[in-house]
Design brief:
The protein is an alpha+beta fold. It is 21% helix and 39% strand. Strand 4 and strand 5 (81-86) form a beta hairpin. The N and C termini lie far apart (59 Å).
Length: 147
């Protein structure tokens, strides 16, 4: 009888240990790195909003809806190439010419560094792994997804 109790206790100990080691009960959802969403942001006293689209292949786009003075301005990143456009007028250059702390520079990093363990951007994710907010420097951004 005593031997049976000891064996049961040892068995329970190893089961508990293996559950702890495997992270049983913890949800580890991988961050989604390709998404389309609406956003609202805060940046240097401005409250821009618009839409974003990101693919895991180095493509990211940001289109502003407000404030009115920048409505329709769009930035598209393909790798390190940046294309800014408004009403059919487009300017393309290397992103190196964009000031480091500028709105579009910070947005690009917030969009393309999702899931990067070396990112300085702070993210919050929903239960599916989609980013719902990001903070980087003077930029605070919240994402809203259509169902």
């Amino acid at each position: 009888m005593r031997k049976g109790i000891i064996i049961s206790l040892v068995f329970m100990f190893f089961i508990s240990l293996s559950m702890l080691a495997s992270g049983c009960g913890e949800s580890t959802v991988e961050p989604v790195t390709a998404f389309t969403a609406d956003f609202t942001a805060e940046y240097r006293g401005l409250k821009p909003c618009g839409s974003v689209s990101v693919s895991g292949a180095g493509y990211a786009s940001v289109t502003l809806d407000s404030p009115e003075t920048v409505r329709g301005v769009s930035a598209v990143y393909r790798g390190t190439e940046l294309s800014l456009s408004l009403d059919g007028l487009r300017c393309t250059s290397d992103e190196a010419y964009l000031p480091d702390g500028s709105f579009f520079s910070l947005m690009k990093r917030a969009l393309t560094e999702v899931g990067d363990p070396d990112s300085r951007c702070e993210y919050e994710f929903d239960e599916r792994g989609y980013p719902v907010s990001a903070k980087l420097g003077e930029l605070r951004v919240n994402f809203r997804y259509s169902e």
